[in-house]
DUF456 domain-containing protein
Amino acid sequence: MVWFALAIAVVLFLLGIVFTIYPILPGAVFAFAGVIVYAWITGFHTLPKWVYILSALMVLANFAIDSLASTLGVKKAGGSKQAMIGAAVGTMVLPFLVGPILGVILGPVIGAIIGELLHVRNAGHLAKVGFASLLGFLTGTVLKLITVFVMIGGFFIGRH
């Protein structure tokens, strides 16, 4: 039964990594589900408590990074509050309008540019804010991947 549980956990971990890079669904939740499903199948006695705590903290960190990454990039570039809101909305909406790959990449950029356009009409500034949003999104993706890998690493270290 342990091998079956491990196989399911590994599949969920891989989905967690994929969805962190390709954020249609929250990748950290899949990785966390891998920990919980493994524990449930094995009777919750094969993982120490610190693995559950670490995993839960990584999920929380992942959500915090997700909500702050693009908006902080915009803010650092001198973008307005409208640009920060636009980046957040663009990240959530554009993948549904233009497809997941283009939407995830272009969503924060277009959202930030539209938001900033409502505030200022300087083309150079718009480009700077849009680029900063993209950079923030990419940085956030790397940081979210780190949280998922910490969760997976903790699982394998704590597993006995």
Observations:
- Residues 49-158 form one domain.
- The radius of gyration is 18 Å.
- The chain has six helices and no strands.
